[in-house]
């Protein structure tokens, strides 16, 4: 391509998940995608909000680059800005990840990301010319050890990317004490934290620990936290409404960058989100959603536990990333399952260090109705039995 | 700002137009903004389209990064892809400008932009670390001379940005022969063309010449044209629906870049746009809009012509950029007009070379009703008379 002169664009990695999604055929049972089932969408509430938005002139006009002030005010209490933080409305959390990495990292600097990782973060780094080094994402304890080692004496490290609550892909949640240790470490090393937190409200039995940005304020730490939220997993991904909160100077810089990139968030979608939130529909919807997700997780994992899968426990979110019973190869199993019309995401799709093959699968329990989840669990178990 | 490590973000210029807009107070007559008057918005048609979109599951779900295929098919015939080109739906034409500059230009390479220019292009270049050199944007003839000189022997030039139809800020339109000369020059120099074309359908009496991307195909030229369109000026800016057309390989690269930046276009807004276009409402709306804009232009410019302003003729679009009668300073006049509650955009807001003060004003005739336009024209004339 003569005219594609930007090598950062030319070198963008293909998201391995997208390659898996391409294998999805009609009729297949899909545990690989992270797309919530439409039955978990409050279509009626959204239709009401949309009808209100459609009647307003401001839904059709230019607006502020930082987003609709009324929408920012309408964000739920668990997303209230803390410690003097500002809020910028983004086109989904993905734009927030991009803006945060862009502002915090000059080209050539390093961002620390977990391995396994949500792969879209890697594309962001390549596009920005920012380097990536990995910390072990298997557990918060190993992550903290790795991060302490990596930050020591490396002043090219500008930020840590972390998904501390019902993580994608692992489903793992950082406890309060792990969060405190992370925040203190980053304060000492003057490394900013990018907190990616779209699954927080999908808890099963108990609310997760405070957001990192809140916890830093509670502890009076100087840690610079940019915290990302989104309506994609709790209202509708097609709305493309996310937000980023942090230090007002950083938010102002990100607002200027986004103005150059796409001027402003979608006015119509912001008004729909604003009416939806103002109506109180979100809390009702979440109250309805949480037990369904808890039950979906239980339905999928019960047969797996009996068959020797481990790491099945999560406390919320949409994903579980079980470790296979010993002696089973992930690649072979995924292939076998595909021939039985069941699509799963092998752990390697989220690995950065490809030298250690993953023995885990990421399974999304939010995409399928209970009967399908039950059948999928049984197919998985049967496949493992056949292998033995 | 310790944590704002990206100097390209830190150095983003403030768009001088935004500083002018901040001076707008309620009750002021605003000829400075390029925001169409809500009376020119087909609210009824949009409400109907929105009601249809709200009932569809796909309005709320994830979709393709390149955009909704049905929307791309529903684009009007004057935006049909030509010569095997592909289409990518963008969040307004601004995202198209960003993606085009990002893909075509590696950091350190040069993009040629007109002076005077639509200032948001300059922010894009700073953010990408791409250099800008200017060509004279006063007329296509001077532009062509300058471009030929600039391209000779400079192999760091990757693209020319041009707004050839009812330009912002000048209102100028490139004739067919000027377009041909530009395309041939760029083919010879292997320089890509970024054709920014959001005003094309707002013609007064006659359709403008073919788009550059179409003309290149008609002439069988090898010129690489990336052509940007938008619904912002003809349907509603709040929808944030634009598109970029060009060589499928370049479009694929831009699609990968946008996927890293914000995943995909807004699903709801795409469905609204799709239903609006499929209903035939756009052609009806444009038939209604064109004579109103022609008449708005005539109303504003008639008194100016009599008072010695020149360069008042445009054939469509939303802007006219008159030259003041000799002896009048733009800055002084703009200041004086502001004290008379009339806001105008001085030509300098669009100038890159600040050493030659502009003696022009950009006036938007799409933002005000006829009575206000008439009064604004008279206020302008009275201000010039008072100055003499």
From TrEMBL, chains A, B:
Signal sequence annotation: none
An example Gene Ontology molecular-function term: pyridoxal phosphate binding
Residues annotated as domain Aminotransferase class I/classII large: 49-378
Keywords, sorted A to Z: Aminotransferase, Pyridoxal phosphate, Transferase
Known cofactor(s): pyridoxal 5'-phosphate
Entry annotated with the keyword Cytoplasm: no
Gene3D superfamilies, per database record: Aspartate Aminotransferase, domain 1, Type I PLP-dependent aspartate aminotransferase-like (Major domain)
Gene Ontology biological process terms from the UniProt entry: alpha-amino acid metabolic process
EC nos: 2.6.1.39
InterPro entries attached to this UniProt entry: Aminotransferase_I/II_large, Class-I_PLP-dep_aminotransf, PyrdxlP-dep_Trfase, PyrdxlP-dep_Trfase_major, PyrdxlP-dep_Trfase_small
Entry keyword Metal-binding: no
UniProt xrefs under Pfam families: Aminotran_1_2 (PF00155)
Name this protein carries in UniProt: 2-aminoadipate transaminase
Species this chain originates from: Tritonibacter multivorans
